[in-house]
Amino acid sequence: MTYLLFLSALSLSAVAAYYSVIGLVAIFAAAPTSIFIMGSLLEACKLVVASWLYRSWKEVPFLMKSYFTMALIVLMVLTSMGIFGYLSKADLDSNVILGANSVQLKTLETQEKIARDKLEYLLKRAGDPATATNKIDKEIQTTQNELNRLSKEKLPLMKEENKLTAEIGPIKYIAEIFYNKDDPSFIDKAVRLVIFTIIIVFDPLAILLLIAANQTYKKFRSQDKEQIVPMRKAKNKK
């Protein structure tokens, strides 16, 4: 169990550190290398401080203990901010793709509406003997070709739109549970809710697992010492 706790704590901390550092790099994109180095060192120091502080809690002076505790809390908040930045960027990237596709689709739909209105107007003129001419017949044919071209261009965009809509389907269902669908930003609010839920349990759980591993290891060592002392006394009597 001790090894399992240590492995779980280190694995979860490593994943949290990775997402946090990548998120901080996304926030401070102008200096990615510096932020990567700084974030990685801070994440490593956070684990060392948590482990050492638990083991030496009774021996550490009050001021030193207070500063380390405050620094640990600040580092946990910083990690959570980095994770929030990483997940937010992932959500924004998907929205950019969806938004660009929607803009192209709406543009084609507007062009298609204009072409249909034009075709309707030309057909009325072609049906009236007073205005029917060969030129109008050619314009009708050109407009029909334009509509066919627009329909062909819309087809892959509509497929991509359905695919992207299906990808955000799960978060949409979650959003409908907690928020009103009439709210234009109800999906964004649901995304933030999910992200906050993740960061609340992510890094704090890693730190608590590390402390639990230290506690279990300390208890295990104390039990070994209790078993070794009677054995030594028995040997000395012999």
Topology:
Layout: H1 2-27, H2 32-55, H3 62-127, H4 134-167, H5 169-178, H6 186-237
Count, helices: 6
Distance between the termini: 36 Å
Radius of gyration: 32 Å
Overall pLDDT confidence = 79
Commentary on this structure:
This protein is mainly α. The protein has six helices and no strands. Helix 1 packs across helix 3 (62-127) and helix 2 packs across helix 6.
Notable traits:
238 residues, 0% strand, mainly alpha
Question: What's this entry about, in short?
Answer:
It is built from six helices and no strands. The protein is mainly α. The model has no long low-confidence stretch (mean pLDDT 79).
